[in-house]
Amino acid sequence: MNPQLLVDCIDVNTHFGALHVLKNVSLTIRPGETVGLVGESGSGKTTLGRAILGIGPVSSGRILFNGTDIAGCPPGARAGEAAAIQAVFQDPYSSLNPSMTIEDILIEPVIARGLASRVDATAQVRKLLKQVALPTDAAQRYPREFSGGQRQRVAIARALALSPRLIVCDEPVSALDLSTQARVLDLFIEIQERTGVAYLFVSHDLSVVRHISHRVAVMRSGEIVEFGECDQVTARPAHDYTRRLLLAAPVADPIRQAERRAAFQALEKGN
Ligand SMILES: Nc1ncnc2c1ncn2[C@@H]1O[C@H](COP(=O)(O)OP(=O)(O)OP(=O)(O)O)[C@@H](O)[C@H]1O
Fold first, then answer.
1. What's the number of domains the chain is made of?
2. Which tens digits make up the pLDDT trace of 242-254?
3. In the record, which residues are listed under signal peptide (predicted)?
4. Distance 47 CA to ligand 1 centre (A)
């Protein structure tokens, strides 16, 4: 075991019936690091994220979390810190229960695990809302009263409620408009700087991954074909498939790219 690693996936395989989806996948995540996971639709990114979360199957291989093998172990059966691997998914509209107030959404994971009394958990809500830059009066409101970007902030706050060491972020900004994407990405970075949480950041969008990742893994047909420092992989890719992904990104949607650059530039100027 390497003590410098938070997550160490070793030769992970997943089959869905006859379909061999993950093929000897090895990938590491260091404490406080963001690893971007890119690849075309159907390449197996979500399957790997779900395996790490304990909500998807593993046929063989090991997933070490802080040295403990958690492969095939559902979240409820995970001991200690491994219980606190959290997730933020793509769709902020369907991932929040519409009949619950934001306060109830935020305290539910804490109460469900018996980690705090309702009174203590409620006291945490204000802090969580502040962490994601939502007003404290949001607590008594319902998801329908918020925009997509605000709902994704609620989903991030819910993930933070258990003080996780890792959040699996599966396309967490894909459903948002471009300026909201930039602001939510900025929030992910700010939270990481403050808390030291690590992210596995799954996206088909290389410009998003480039903005947020320390290292990038490229997945093709269930295999990691390239894994390295973000600058290295995106500026000097070693694999043809990565080069094709990089070439495809700006050409496929030049207007989106220009808008995104403008949004990031505005962010960098503090607008
Ligand atoms: N529960 C399941 N049962 C059967 N096949 C599945 C299941 N989940 C995923 N698959 C298949 O596994 C393959 C990989 O899917 P996965 O969702 O991991 O890809 P992805 O890279 O995340 O794609 P996308 O970017 O479109 O979300 C696909 O062929 C998919 O149809």
1. 1
2. 988 888 765 334 4
3. none
4. 6
